[in-house]
Amino acid sequence: MCASHREVAARRPRNTEQSQAQRLSWVKSSYSGGEGGECVEVAVSPGSVHIRDSKGTGRGFFTVSQATWSALSTTPVAVTEEH
């Protein structure tokens, strides 16, 4: 039986993830909030897209397939403003 990606990521040593993050080329979203908050950064590798919080780059990232990223990035989302 094969472990899920989440289970494998949970067992991966933290220093290995940090090392991988340093090797990736991260790009900040062009749809960042006006005050510099609510930003994500993405890095593309063969077959995968890695996503992290731009304000917490040392806190890790998660990985999705390129097909999943394509579906996520082309799906319209309702945006609400908090007052």
Task: Tell me briefly what this model is.
With 83 residues, the chain is an alpha+beta fold.
Topology as a string of helices (H) and strands (E) = HHEEEEH
Low-confidence stretches: 1-8
How many individual β-strands?
A: 4
Averaged pLDDT, please?
74
What is Rg?
14 Å
Structure description:
This is DUF397 domain-containing protein. Residues 1-10 have a biased composition (Basic and acidic residues). Residues 1-23 are annotated as: Disordered. This protein has 83 residues and is an alpha+beta fold. The chain has one domain (5-30, 38-73). Helix content is 31%, strand content 22%. It contains 3 helices and 4 strands. It has a 4-stranded antiparallel beta sheet. It starts with a helix and ends in a 9-residue tail after the last helix. Mean pLDDT is 74; it is low at 1-8.
List its salient traits.
single chain; DUF397 domain-containing protein; disordered N terminus; 83 residues; alpha+beta; DUF397; four-stranded antiparallel sheet; 3 helices; 4 strands
